[in-house]
C-alpha cells in the first residue's frame, strides 16, 4: 500500500472510529466488514471493501457511488455522442 492510500485510509477511518471509540482496530474492521456485507473472516477483508464502505458512509444516501459520478452524463444525447466518439472529453 502506498503512502497516498494509507493517508486516505486514516482520513476516512478517523471520524468513523471516533464514533465507535470503545472498539479496537480489529473489532472496528470486523464491524465495517459486516456492515458492508462481507462474507468470511477478517483475513479475507480487502482494503478496497474498507475504502468503499467508509467513502459511502461519509456520503449522503442519495449521492452517486464514487468513481461512477465522473462518468455520468445528465443528458442522454451527449452520453451517446461521447460513446460513439463524436464528442471528445
From TrEMBL:
Protein name: YihD family protein
Domain of life of the native organism: Bacteria
InterPro entries: DUF1040 (IPR009383), YihD_sf (IPR038134)
Gene3D superfamilies reported for this sequence: Protein of unknown function DUF1040
A Pfam family the protein falls into: DUF1040
Amino acid at each position: 500500500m502506498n503512502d497516498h492510500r494509507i493517508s486516505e485510509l486514516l482520513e476516512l477511518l478517523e471520524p468513523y472510529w471516533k464514533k465507535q471509540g470503545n472498539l479496537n482496530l480489529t473489532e472496528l474492521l470486523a464491524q465495517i466488514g459486516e456492515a458492508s456485507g462481507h462474507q468470511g473472516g477478517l483475513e479475507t477483508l480487502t482494503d478496497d471493501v474498507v475504502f468503499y464502505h467508509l467513502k459511502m458512509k461519509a456520503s449522503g444516501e442519495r449521492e452517486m457511488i464514487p468513481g461512477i459520478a465522473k462518468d455520468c452524463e445528465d443528458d442522454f444525447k451527449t452520453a451517446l455522442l461521447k460513446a460513439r466518439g463524436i464528442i471528445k472529453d
